[in-house]
Each structure stands twice: as C-alpha cells, then as structure tokens.
C-alpha cells in the first residue's frame, strides 16, 4: 500500500517550491469557534482580488456564495484521534445547522456540511470511528465522507462529486474547506478549486469530563503544524505572496 501521508508530504513540498500561494488560506481564524456564519465577504479579504481597484471604479466586489462546508475533524472539531467534542465546538456546529439565517441550516440545506477526515472514514480500519461520529451528530444530519481511493489532500474531486450528486453545489467555488492544516486542508481546497479557511490554533478547549475540562488554552498542534504556522507567516509577510483564489476569482 502506498503511504498516502508520504505522498501528501511530497506534494506539500512540491507545492511550496512551485506554487506556494496554494498553501496560503483565503481566511485565517483562530479556531472553528470563530468561523463566520456567512463566509463569502470574508474569503476575498486577503486574496489578490481584494487588492484590485474595483472600489475606485465604483464596480461592486464579487462575493462568493458558499453553499457547502467541508470540515476537518482532528484538531478542528475534536482533539486529535478523538471523537469527543468540546462543548463550545459542538454548540458551534449546532448553530450552523439550526440558525434560521445560516446557509448551512439543516432544514434548507440538509447536506451542506460534510466531515472529511484523514482518520474517520478514510480507510476501512477507521470505519467504526466514522459510524460513531455520525451517531453523535445524527441530530444535526452531518455525515462523514468515505474515501474510496485517496485521502486528503488528494480526494478533492471525490468530495466535489459528492456535493454535486446531491445538488448542493454546481461548482467548486461554492465550497469552503475548513481545517487546521495547510498541507492537507488548505492544499486540498486549492487542488479542487474551492475556498480555504485555516483554523490556525486548532482545538483549544478541553472536553467535558476529561482532565482538561474547563481549560481554553490547550495546544494540540504537532511539529509539522507549528512549522506550517511559521511557513505561512514567512510566505505572506516576507515574500508578499497572496493566497490563490478559485478560477474566475483572480480579480
């Protein structure tokens, strides 16, 4: 079996050397708790299109219409290698699914959120975890994606097809990928032509009933994730590189 983690690492290194803008997120937030309900206006804020002179020409700025969310699990919704949600993170998911104004309201857009993980649902050995996760989120109708061939960042075409088959989106630029890793989540968004949202600090809250219950200052990021923080800052601040945007949004 090909080591998909090694493949992903090699792709991230190749991307860094050739097209580093594909590793920069369209929107950076501290944690999932800071995800705006209406993403569109926030996604172009740091992109190349936002630096154009459209305002001076009195032409309106295009705003993405986000109809679908792809959300990572490990260190985005839950601590790594866990399906236990910190209370605030579960409440955030519930708000996205129940708020009357949310584009991802489960009544009006029942299949507008999909969890795509490199653990749960990514291979047969993680199937029990995927089923348990779906059981916990049954009241919110949030499914876990089952990868048939590739894991992140290579499964973008399959994810896009999943949403298209269900009539949620017609094009990839109606999707936002939300996760804590540049080399998997943000890079997958770039590969599939979607928008990316980077949860820079990952999960910072303790899970109820655990030894960390009540804490809001946790840091589950591993070595590579911390390297990505420095890399993102270097590319953006020192090199002056702007995030890539989906085709047609170049400005």
From TrEMBL:
GO molecular function terms attached to this record: phosphatidylglycerophosphatase activity
Organism: Talaromyces rugulosus
Residue ranges, annotated region (Disordered): 40-66
Domain of life: Eukaryota
UniProt feature, compositional bias: Polar residues: 55-64
Xref: Pfam families: PGP_phosphatase (PF09419)
Protein name (Swiss-Prot/TrEMBL): Uncharacterized protein
């Amino acid at each position: 079996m090909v080591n998909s983690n090694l493949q992903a690492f090699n792709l991230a290194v190749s991307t860094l050397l050739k097209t580093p803008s594909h590793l920069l997120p369209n929107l950076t937030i501290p944690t999932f708790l800071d995800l705006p309900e209406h993403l569109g206006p926030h996604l172009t804020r740091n992109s190349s299109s936002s630096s154009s002179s459209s305002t001076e020409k009195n032409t309106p700025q295009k705003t993405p219409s986000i109809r679908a969310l792809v959300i990572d699990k490990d260190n985005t919704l839950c601590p790594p290698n866990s399906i236990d949600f910190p209370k605030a993170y579960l409440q955030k998911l519930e708000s996205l699914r129940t708020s009357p104004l949310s584009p991802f309201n489960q009544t009006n857009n029942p299949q507008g959120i999909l969890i795509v993980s490199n653990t749960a649902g990514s291979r047969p050995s993680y199937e029990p975890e995927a089923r348990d996760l779906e059981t916990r989120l049954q009241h919110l109708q949030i499914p876990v994606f089952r990868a048939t061939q590739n894991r992140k960042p290579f499964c973008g075409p399959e994810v896009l097809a999943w949403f298209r088959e269900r009539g949620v989106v017609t094009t990839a630029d109606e999707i936002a990928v939300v996760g804590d890793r540049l080399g998997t989540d943000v890079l997958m968004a770039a590969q599939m032509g979607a928008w990316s949202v980077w949860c820079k600090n990952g999960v910072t809250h303790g899970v109820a009933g655990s030894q960390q219950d009540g804490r809001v200052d946790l840091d589950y990021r591993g070595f590579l994730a911390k390297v990505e923080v420095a890399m993102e800052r270097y590319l953006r601040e020192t090199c002056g590189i702007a995030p890539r945007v989906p085709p047609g949004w170049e400005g």
